[in-house]
């Protein structure tokens, strides 16, 4: 049962960009939908489970959730610039490499020469895989350029903060279910501010603003399930299962969103995805 639960985050996070891509709308509509949908999941979970959380941890989680929304905005903009099938592999690699480096420098992970060697070899495999998925024949309008690459990298900082904060002393000993609600409420606040400011309130009259809540429900269910997967299997094993979302989102973008790939590009994409998954698995041995 624990392994089935661990598959939920992979499915939810993998299908989220497919759902929002199918619905369409602006990055403001899509970001608002994620915040609103995730908040619905968070409120229901909080009312049913009634977890305990301190005021300080609540407020801190709220801020971290708002910072996460900045990264999600960057990802949605990148979907439109590069396509889902290009963005997700790169975003996954940026998150994995960034979180690993933060873990080594500040959280005492990969202690010892052997762990460092294994860890950085695994990250090198992941980076090579990401570069392979970005190989382009130049025929598609949605492709990885230097500007698009750097934009996605810079906005990924919000994901790094969000991923690191559960290990900080203020929230480390809190019930994960307890901090889940303020996290998603922070996402909702950040998303609402972004959508309202960038569209000057026009988003509230657009149906895509509300249809994209379906993508938010997918994301929220995945994030909530991950809490229990990590409890049952450990965060390392649970994380490996989440990497399946790269496969779902990448090939879903190609097949369901009709993002063009030539036969030559597909060979590199398949090989690159395989390396990303292999490298991610290798990090647990570091």
From TrEMBL:
Transmembrane segments: 6-24, 31-49, 55-78, 90-110, 116-135, 147-165, 177-197, 209-229, 235-256, 268-285
Kinase listed as a keyword: no
One GO CC term, this protein: plasma membrane
Keyword Cell membrane: no
Family annotation (InterPro entries): EmrE-like, Sugar_transport
Main localisation: membrane
Top-level taxonomic group: Bacteria
Record-level Gene Ontology MF annotations: carbohydrate transmembrane transporter activity
Cell location: Cell membrane
Bilayer topology term: Multi-pass membrane protein
Keyword annotations from UniProtKB, A to Z: Membrane, Sugar transport, Transmembrane, Transmembrane helix, Transport
Pfam (any one): Sugar_transport
Family: Belongs to the GRP transporter (TC 2.A.7.5) family.
Protein name: Sugar transport protein
Taxonomic lineage: Bacteria, Bacillati, Bacillota, Bacilli, Lactobacillales
């Amino acid at each position: 049962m624990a392994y089935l639960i661990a598959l939920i985050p992979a499915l939810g996070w993998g299908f989220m960009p497919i759902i929002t891509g199918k619905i369409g709308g602006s990055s403001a509509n899509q970001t608002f939908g994620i915040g609103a949908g995730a908040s619905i999941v968070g409120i229901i979970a909080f009312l049913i489970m009634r977890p305990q959380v301190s005021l300080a941890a609540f407020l801190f989680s709220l801020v971290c959730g708002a910072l996460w929304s900045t990264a999600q905005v960057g990802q949605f903009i990148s979907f439109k610039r590069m396509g889902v099938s290009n963005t997700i592999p790169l975003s996954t690699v940026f998150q994995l490499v960034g979180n690993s480096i933060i873990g080594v420098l500040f959280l005492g992970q990969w202690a010892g020469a052997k762990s460092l060697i294994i860890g950085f070899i695994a990250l090198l495999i992941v980076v090579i895989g990401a570069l392979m998925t970005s190989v382009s024949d130049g025929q598609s309008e949605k492709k990885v350029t230097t500007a698009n690459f750097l934009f996605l990298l810079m906005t990924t900082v919000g994901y790094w903060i969000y991923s690191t904060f559960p290990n900080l002393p203020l929230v480390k000993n809190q019930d994960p279910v307890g901090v889940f609600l303020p996290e998603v409420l922070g996402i909702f606040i950040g998303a609402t501010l972004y959508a309202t400011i960038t569209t000057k309130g026009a988003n509230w009259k657009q149906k895509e603003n509300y249809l994209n809540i379906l993508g938010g429900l997918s994301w929220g269910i995945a994030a909530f399930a991950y809490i229990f997967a990590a409890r049952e299997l450990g965060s390392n094993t649970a994380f490996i299962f989440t990497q399946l979302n790269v496969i779902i989102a990448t090939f879903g973008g190609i097949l369901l969103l009709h993002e063009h790939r030539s036969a030559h590009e597909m060979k590199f994409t398949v090989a690159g995805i395989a390396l990303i998954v292999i490298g991610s698995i290798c990090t647990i041995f570091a």
